[in-house]
Amino acid sequence: MTIHLPELVHDPAGVPDGARIRRVTAEIQGARHGTGLGHVLVEIWGAVTMVVLSAAFVAGVAATLHRSAPPELASTLVGELPAVVVLVALVGATLGLAERLGPVGVGGGGAAWWLPMPVPRRGLLAAPAVLRPVIGAAAGAALAPTATLALAVPTSAMRIAVWALLGAGALGTAVGVAALAQHVPRAGRTVRVTGDALLVVAAAGLAALVWVPSPVEVLPLRALGAAGSLLVLTAAALTPVAARRAGDLPGGVLRRSGSVGDRVTSAVLGLDLRELGRTLTERTGPSRRRSRELHPRGPRSALLTADLLLLGRTPRALVQLAAATLLAVAAPRTALLGSSIPLYLALVVLGTWAASAGAGGARHGDLVPTLDRAFGLSARATRLVRGGTPALTAAVWAVVVMGVLAADDVRWLALAPAWALALAAGAIRAAYRPPPKAPRMPVSSPMGGVPYTAGLLVGIDVALAATLPTAIGLLVGLSPTVLGLQAVFAVAAAVGVVLSAPSARPRRGSSRPAARGRATA
Amino acid sequence: MSRAHRTPVPDDALIAARALRVGYLDAPVCAPVDLTLRAGEILAVVGPNGAGKSTLLRTVLGLLDPLGGKVTVLGDEVDERSARFRAAVAGVLDDDAWFPGLTAREHLLLTAAGHGVSNTTTVVDGVLETFGITDHQHALPSALSSGQRRRLLLAAGFVRPRELLVLDEPEQRLDATMRATLAGLLLAEAAAGTAVLLATHDPVLLTTLDAPAVHVDDVTCRLMSAAEAVTAMHE
Fold first, then answer.
1. Measured between alpha carbons, how far is B119 from A267 in angstroms, rounded to an integer?
2. CB distance A252–B156 less than 8 Å?
């Protein structure tokens, strides 16, 4: 059977510009969904309102905490030098994020329907290539002054404006650099490593400033203004170059970046931090390494060895552990977090972050249970073994952080083993939690609809519950009873997390797990 | 005729691959591939799941860089950034991605217009009719069934000019009638001078096309007849 289609009348000169294709698509979609001037103004108004309210909220909380902080802490980690260190951390985070997101990419319908067209791509990609640095600059303009407010820098309209300029220039330049690095093979890795290094340097800087307080409260306004202006000019110079060269990016690069962007957007909207972490830490470097001669003594040893190797071969996880440790070392000496309950919450959050650095194997095992199934271990045994690396990273964090705290009260050191166990239990629970229930209706909240997902707090809930005795101890004193209770709570949490996995062994020959949760057995 | 030997590249080859290694990052997924495809020819790529068929097609389409060897399309090294390449090479992969606010018909009209087609309405009407989605042309893709979305993806490959048509398992999610229609369309394409490269698992489609096939796996890549390829599919 031969079929004939209508003859194509085709004029190569009639191929439209990419910008026109983008505009026509937007107009058709806008006609259905509404993207008129009024809609845009409402969106801008909403964004401005959110930024102003957030800044006011941070300033209010900071002022309250500063007033309530113990006098000996009131002078630590305040002023513009720590704010500069925070800005360095923001630049590091932006570099890493921008590189992982592209920053220029085309996802979704654009990847499938625009990119195959023979239209000039510069016009197609100019908008996102300009928009990304602008978004970076806008975020910097909001975050940098907020950091100064939180760090109790004496404020004036001029000083806030200068910090907005500095933040906009720094983050806009970071995104611009990442955009240009897309054109150079392997430059992306350099950008990513630089971003991670800046994060560690900033965390170390904050930790150092806690012990050697900043000699100056404010920096010369003129110097800050000059640096901000220079950075803004740099960002303004890089952005058009990135936009002009965007058309030279290969389709494969644009699709990969767009795909990462789509997944990140989906994870953020779904409040799915696990998927967000997976997406942003996915391996993009060389897939070959020198193989080691491994001699595991049985399935448990093999699984643990695999997790340890993964941890050692994931620089991002090690950076995460270092940053979490350094920030936790700094936290007790800051006016914002130095007092009891804020300190406890900061330690739980940072400790969970450190423990989750070692839970990469467990997260991957939940997603792709092939390796776990291959060993024929029960789900409980697998969960227990997979807890080994989170326990290791949590132990490193706990020994360092509690060791520093022990300078004031030696009993803190006795809490380290229990905290390591509790945090590892939380990390394992987070790694093996059920996926978000996307089809569920959003939960109504005073701030609007929030997607229903039980995933956001899963893991940290265990860490909070398992370290509750420490919270009480910070209020009433670290008595032997508190230390004993803390050990009991940690062990109970670890046992609970292991027992929450189904106990059945996989059936021999079964290619499919009997149920979710047994997937790793 | 397609050949899987390391022979010199003929001047009229639309696709020529010699010792081509394909894969992700730096890991090849199959043995080195040799193939030649000229205008008016159909060549199938067969092999078990995970053998590297889709990876090979993505490399030919310029979406992945070759890990080694050489591949030329239209006489030049593959460069998907070239407008000439994109104008001549139509690829239909299994990308289930859409503009959420555009109907099925609007997707096809946009594609045709984006390739400089001037009689877009006539072409889109005809292709919609051929793929049996005229009744659903005003539906958003999210409202279509899986099979209807597959037909829409395939239709996009036929509303635009093409010298080379690359299809990744086009039979997926199609009923028997539509598979027969697809076979007829591909034969018509070849008769009109278009070169067709398709990965497939469908012995009926392969038999109908009576096209030679490159069998890929991680040991070796061999050129075989349609009958041999069908036999290999059943092994």
1. 42
2. no
